[in-house]
Amino acid sequence: MSPAEHLAFLKSRRSRRYYSNADVPLRVVERILEAGSQAPSGANSQPWQFVLIPRGPHRQAIQEMCAVADLHFHETAPKWLKDWLKHHNVSTEKIYFDKAAWLLAVFSQRDLPYWLPSVWLCIANIINQIEAEDLHTVVYTPTLGKPFCELLGVDTSWSCQALLPIGVADPDEHMQPRPRIPAREKTLIFDDEGIATWEEFEAEA
Ligand SMILES: Cc1cc2nc3c(=O)[nH]c(=O)nc-3n(C[C@H](O)[C@H](O)[C@H](O)COP(=O)(O)O)c2cc1C
After folding, report:
1. Model's pTM, two decimal places?
2. Residue having the nearest C-alpha atom to atom 10 of ligand 1
């Protein structure tokens, strides 16, 4: 894949919130998790743990736990956060991961240094590999805490950072455009003259 093709691939990725019943073989999921495992991490500590949840009755229990957590999050959010969520159209609308072939819970070991950036780099690799497999996901970060660990029977010292459905998206999902701000608008260039915008730096060159 050329650099331009790689960038085009990254640009083509979209979050999908509705899924079909299509299956995804476990060997494909293994490749996705291997991609996550290649992420850089502080001192190569690899502070992530994965739990895969196939379709089944547990999905309903998880969905209900997420709904309670999301409601609590929205009800107890400070005013500035409520305003921000409203401004960005973030609602308590649920993500319907009950149909997706797999639900992946990415946990982290919070007692390790650099755990937070490391686990999120792992998640970034995972979402890009899901896209490369022509599958779909959406990052979902309900505040689940120890009851979620207990539901899954995992060590309560693990902390769930994200729930990721892995599946084939429903082709009828209505997709809102999510344009990106060009990188040059997000970039200042610091040189001997000081700080300049991209355009100022180019004009002077
Ligand atoms: C940390 C994080 C949390 C997110 N939480 C949610 C969520 O709760 N519900 C949702 O529908 N999308 C969620 N998303 C997906 C974003 O809304 C989405 O990535 C963004 O709108 C850009 O759209 P795109 O991924 O299709 O390009 C989350 C993404 C991240 C990185």
Report:
1. 0.95
2. 140
Does residue 95's CB lie within 6 angstroms of at least one atom of ligand 1?
yes
CATH class of 3-173: alpha beta
The closest alpha carbon to 143, from 49, 72, 50, belongs to 72
95 alpha carbon – ligand 1 mean position (Å): 11
Residue whose Cα lies nearest atom 28 of ligand 1: it is 139
For residues 80, 63, 17 and 170, what is the CA-based torsion angle, rounded to 10 degrees?
A: -160
Pocket test for ligand 1, best of 18, 71, 123, 140 (most atoms within 8 A of CB): 140
DSSP-assigned letter for residue 26: H
What are 143-197's pLDDT values in tens digits? 999 999 999 999 999 999 999 999 999 999 999 899 999 999 999 999 998 999 9
Q: Is the CB of 15 inside a 6 Å radius of any atom of ligand 1?
A: yes
In 135-188, alpha helices (H): 145-152
pLDDT tens digit string along 64-101?
999 999 999 989 999 999 999 888 877 766 677 889 99
Which regions of the chain carry the CATH code 3.40.109.10?
3-173
